[in-house]
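Exercise 7. Given the encoded structure of a 205-residue chain, write a plausible sequence.
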């Protein structure tokens, strides 16, 4: 089983569904915009090497808008989401998103050339949930099976889970957060995430 860091590093290929791609199906959009993001990373390599803090801006601009973080947060917390107050939910969504952004940014520093192949999407008319399967080849490392799970909502197709070699991002966090909440509390989890994010922002974590 790959580590969470490897899983998150693969998320650097996260597609950006801009307005130019709204007429495309999820499979075509993933291909078009994944290639677009790879080009952005390549062309900005020198800048990122000199000013690594710019990575945060890149992740927030390209990656964050493509996630449905409220849906992801609800599924990650499971029964704890249903029991949480609106304030607790809001804090968790904010801190969990910040955790993801910082983790993506850290992984981005390790970015190297990737080659992506795409599997035709199996999708029937009216389907609201679709899996887009890709294979990522990395120089000097094993290939990764990277699957995007998307849902068609009010704001169009949004990613709500990603699987790397069948390891689910949602399931990974759901297990660890469930244990932490049962051993402490929802507030304690939110406070720990906030402290962790604050340290990362100061460059201490």
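Solution.
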């Amino acid at each position: 089983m790959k580590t969470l860091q490897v899983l998150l590093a693969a998320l650097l290929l996260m597609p950006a569904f801009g307005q130019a791609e709204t007429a495309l199906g999820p499979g075509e959009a993933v291909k078009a915009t994944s290639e677009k993001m790879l080009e952005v990373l390549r062309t900005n390599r020198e800048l990122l090497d000199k000013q690594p803090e710019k990575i945060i801006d890149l992740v927030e601009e390209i990656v964050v808008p493509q996630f449905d973080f409220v849906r992801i947060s609800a599924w990650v917390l499971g029964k704890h989401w249903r029991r949480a107050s609106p304030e607790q939910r809001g804090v968790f969504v904010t801190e969990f998103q910040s955790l993801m952004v910082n983790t993506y940014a850290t992984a981005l520093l390790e970015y190297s050339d990737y080659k992506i192949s795409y599997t035709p999407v199996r999708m029937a008319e009216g389907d609201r949930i679709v899996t887009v399967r890709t294979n990522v080849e990395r120089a000097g490392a094993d290939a990764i099976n990277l699957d995007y799970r998307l849902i068609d909502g009010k704001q169009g197709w949004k990613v709500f889970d990603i699987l790397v070699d069948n390891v689910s991002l949602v399931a990974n966090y759901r297990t660890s957060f469930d244990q932490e909440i049962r051993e402490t509390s929802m507030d304690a989890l939110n406070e720990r995430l906030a402290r962790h994010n604050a340290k990362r922002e100061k460059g201490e974590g």
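Remark. Strands lie at 114-118, 129-138, 144-153, 156-164, 167-168. Students should compare their own answers with the one above.
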